[in-house]
Amino acid sequence: MAKNQKAKAKMEQAKGKAKESAGRTVGNERLTAEGKTDQAKGDARQAKEKAKDVFRH
């Protein structure tokens, strides 16, 4: 389960970076903001999984 969540976090981060980059390229502030939000979600999920790992070991 944890590996699945870690992979999901990485996917959210990558998707967010792509959206942010695309938004900046075309000058779309909404898309840029969505990208940053997706990255933040991925970062939060990754931090949660890392915290779980600390308590497991």
Offer a quick outline of the entry:
This protein has 57 residues and is mainly α.
Describe this structure in words.
By secondary structure, this protein is mostly helical. Helix content is 93%, strand content 0%. The protein contains two helices and no strands. It has helices spanning 2-26, 29-56. The longest helix is centred in the last third of the chain and has 28 residues, at 29-56. The radius of gyration is 13 Å and the shape is elongated. The mean pLDDT is 92.
Would you spell out the secondary-structure blueprint of this structure?
Elements: H1 2-26, H2 29-56
Helix pairs in contact: 1-2
- Kindly, what is the distance between the CA atoms of the first and last residues, rounded to a whole number of angstroms? 16 Å
Which structural category do the helix and sheet elements fall into? Answer: mainly alpha
Number of helices: 2
What is the H/E string? HH
- What amount of the residues lies in strands? under 5%
Helix content: over 70%
What radius of gyration results from the CA coordinates?
13 Å
Descriptive terms for the model:
mainly alpha; 57 residues; single chain
